[in-house]
Amino acid sequence: MPEGGLKMRSWLFAPGDSERKMEKAAGSPADIAIFDLEDAVAIGEKPLARTMVRAFLEAQSGGHERLWVRINPLDGPYALTDLAAVMPGKPGGIMLPKARGRGDVELLDHYLSAFEAVAGIEQGATKVIALVTETAEAMYTTGDYAGAPRLIAMTWGAEDLADSLGASENRDADGSYGFTYQMARSFCLIGAATAGVAAIETIQGDFRDLEGLRARAEQVRRDGYRGMLAIHPAQVEVINAAFTPGVDELAAAQEIVDLFAANPGAGTIGYKGAMLDRPHLARARALLGLSGG
């Protein structure tokens, strides 16, 4: 099951300088709403956005575990000011952009521990998702996050990575991500598995293409991803459905688990004309775990 029972299928961004969009995100069926202080907010508007995000958080009577904040990168001038402003509002978690490696998560943990102490928040309550492929150097550290404090998920980004590499485009002629960016997606997935946290797919910029979104979300879920970032409320229900196992999937998984339970000494078991071994059992259990089964 996810951390503390928290669902992590859909992560919906809302700019921190728009109360209307924050309200829409918080009221949506998104598992997690992320109030953005980084890319969605111009430099001159960041002070106002911090005030607005804190006021919004403080106005909520409950549900803070699903209300997160994306701060600015730790190696820039704004991250500590972001945290000082929003932590009294008791966000459920922090999205760390442009993470350079495990050291950034550890540094963020120190900051959060201090701000939690001041704000009267239980130590360790504020969780973290790290964006782990947004800079060239970060691509070499995606496998280093095992045991990183507070970390419950890892995600990746293609746009900032393209900027870091000096690329003019990150997609091939058919619209799919180029090799380097497919590699970034794979590194994030493998790194998250190594760290024992959820892998979260990056955004789909065209929020009108819901069929394309559905196909992509279903594919990355088959690959091992457990959720996806969203930039528009219309994407949320599609993402939620794609990352929720269907009735037939769950029934088949339960059948496999039951077959192995009935034959505890067997290494392989015949099932519908195929031979299944222990990795099939592990995948069936993981699938059931997605729905709490």
Tell me about this structure.
- GO terms for molecular function: lyase activity.
- Keywords: Lyase, Magnesium, Metal-binding.
- With 293 residues, this protein is α/β, with parallel strands linked by helices.
- 42% of the residues lie in helices and 15% in strands.
- The protein has an eight-stranded parallel barrel, surrounded by five helices.
- Strand 4, helix 4 and strand 5 (127-131) form a beta-alpha-beta unit.
- Helix 7 (210-223) packs parallel to helix 8 (236-242) and helix 9 (247-262) packs across helix 10 (278-290).
- The relative contact order is 0.11.
- The mean pLDDT is 92.
Could you provide a short overview of the structure?
The protein has 293 residues and is an alpha/beta fold. It contains ten helices and ten strands.
| Mean pLDDT metric | 92
In whole angstroms, the N-to-C terminal distance is 9 Å
Rounded to an integer in angstroms, the radius of gyration calculated over CA atoms is 20 Å
Report the total helices.
Answer: 10
Q: What would the principal axes of the Cα set say about the shape?
A: globular
Side by side, the strands of the main sheet go 1-2-3-4-5-6-7-8
Q: Report the portion of residues in β strands.
A: 15-25%
